[in-house]
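Morning. Coffee machine broken again, so started the prediction first thing and wrote up yesterday's gels while waiting. Chain of 482 residues, entered below exactly as on the submission form.
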Amino acid sequence: MAGKINRFFLIAVIILAAGLRLFWLDRVPPALNWDEAAIGWNAKTIWKLRVDEFGNRLPVSFRSFGDYKAPLYIYLTAPVVGIFGNTEIGVRLVSVIAGVTSVVLMYFIGGPAAAGLLAISPWHILLSRPALEANLALMWILGGVWLFLRGTKRPVWLIASAVSFIFSLYSYQSPKIFVPVFVLGLIIIYWSSLKRALVWLALAGIVAAVAITPLIKDGFGAGGRRFQMTSVFYQSKDNLPLTLVKNYLVHWSPQWLFLSGGETGRSQMRQIGMLLMVTAPFLVLGLIQLWKKRQDSWSKVLFWWLLAAPLPAMIGFDVPHPIRSYQLLPVLIIITAMGLSKITARPRATLVYGLIAINALFFLYHYFVTYPVESAPQWQYGYKQAAALAQEHEDEVDKVIITSYYGQPYVFTYWYQDRDPQAIFWGGAIKYLFRTIRLDGDMLLPNTLLIGAPAEIPEGASGIIKEIYFPDGKVAFRVVKT
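Came back before lunch.
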């Protein structure tokens, strides 16, 4: 854990972290994706009606597109949306706050270098600017670790640690696998200290048991179905043990960690790995230092953290998965900071930190300049403009049909048009249809507005009144009025 607090550095790193997560927040990522729009819309229905978009009152899990979302991010976003309205910043603000708080917690857990590395980490910036429940969960996990370490000296903090870990379970699905395994390891490693505080440990256990009861009940219903949808246990037809081993090991790939996150998508970039490339030698150096100190309790915690972190991603598809394996990031950062701490000579340290700064600037350039253009289709770019155009013309037509080619058009439409949830429940958008555009048949519909993808409405089709473009200039939508 960190020693004496350097207040000047802590304030500076908070400003840096906040700036990198707030700058152009409504422009990068380039649009709300369907998950973010669903979070915003459900937050609005919770704020106004205390129900989700399907009418379920204050649910423990929110039904979404092919899965069920953990509830805490939506509940925390509800007052933000209720007070400040339907904006990209409103949906993403909870994630930004969680990201900055994680940097502060990293300072107290891993020291100044770890906090600085997390503040500029590509992995952390990529996931702490969008509205991602995993980012909120990571904050609670770090809070749980910090409070647990305090609890080994002052046991009263064990209850607060339990609460923080429980909040992570209500924030995202992956901690439901990682946290029990990780906390069990913490208890075993620090048992010599904890056995003198069994009353406080028992109280923390009781608090945790009571708090997770709704999750356990939900696990046999809606929340449990998400596990079936995303788990190789239910869907893989390959050799299961081999699949699990491959899925686990791929998260240690140097190519993925340091060179390229893969094809540019929502949570990774083609030009850069999940971690800054120049920090790779210091991760290795940190691992060597960790092995030399392997008898220390803290070193054992870090080893256990490393081993347990990929478990949630291991049982899923689409590996390596930067979101499901997100809890791996802090321990990699801490170990890298341990390696950096061995560079003490001023000329050498200046060179190293200069190279890290250059690498970070390279990432930031691509993130703010290249990434919004390349990743726009993955963020369902254009539905905001389509919703505005539909609202502009809806009084002139009998029906509006918006394509489902890119995703879930209804949630973008309701969100961006600032619809009243109560009105939607009572058929306030009855004029709208959300489906694939079938041009030959749909052109026969009288007085109808069609908003479709280029694959559905080709160039030169009759009745085109407008085109909506991706940032790279390619057509995202064509609009036809019959």
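The mean pLDDT is 94. Going to sketch it on the whiteboard this afternoon.
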